[in-house]
């Protein structure tokens, strides 16, 4: 059962990352697609697209990145409620990201 839970949490994180990347990459205003949500990937994408790193969209992406990184490193521990709360925060941030990119 524990192994199933770990796999479920892993799949949720991957789905969340994929979903955020799809939100960003369906925008035609960016010359280069975002390929990942690590800090380095975000910094490279921001630089390549000549974006303001302090913009609302970039700020939201960095917040999502930090939360996903936290989940990836803490999912092995007993943090079920915290995991659920962070997952909800990521979903809310994704919604705000979609609005900020319009």
Number-wise, the strands total 0
Number of helices: 4
Strand content: under 5%
Taking pLDDT < 50 over at least 5 consecutive residues as the criterion, the unreliable ranges are: none
Series of secondary-structure elements, N-terminal to C-terminal? HHHH
Describe the largest sheet. Answer: none
Q: Give the overall average pLDDT.
A: 87
Distance between the termini: 42 Å
Class by helix and strand content?
mainly alpha
Percent of residues in helices: over 70%
What gyration radius follows from the Cα positions, in whole Å? 14 Å
- The coarse overall form would be globular
List the helices and strands and how they pair.
Blueprint: H1 2-25, H2 39-48, H3 56-74, H4 80-100
Helix pairs in contact: 1-3, 1-4, 3-4
Labels describing this entry:
102 residues; mainly alpha; 4 helices; globular
Report on the structure:
The protein is mostly helical and 102 residues long. It contains 4 helices and no strands. It has helices at 2-25, 39-48, 56-74, 80-100. The protein is globular.
Short description:
The chain is mostly helical and 102 residues long. 73% of the residues lie in helices and 0% in strands. The model has no long low-confidence stretch (mean pLDDT 87).
């Amino acid at each position: 059962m524990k192994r199933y839970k770990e796999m479920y949490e892993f799949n949720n994180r991957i789905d969340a990352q994929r979903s955020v990347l799809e939100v960003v990459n369906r925008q035609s205003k960016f010359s280069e697609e975002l390929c990942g949500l690590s800090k380095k990937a975000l910094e490279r994408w921001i630089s390549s697209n000549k974006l303001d790193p302090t913009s609302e969209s970039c700020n939201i992406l960095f917040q999502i990145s930090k939360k996903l990184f936290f989940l990836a490193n803490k999912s092995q521990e007993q943090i079920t409620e915290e995991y659920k709360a962070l997952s909800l925060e990521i979903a809310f941030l994704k919604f705000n990201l979609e609005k900020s990119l319009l």
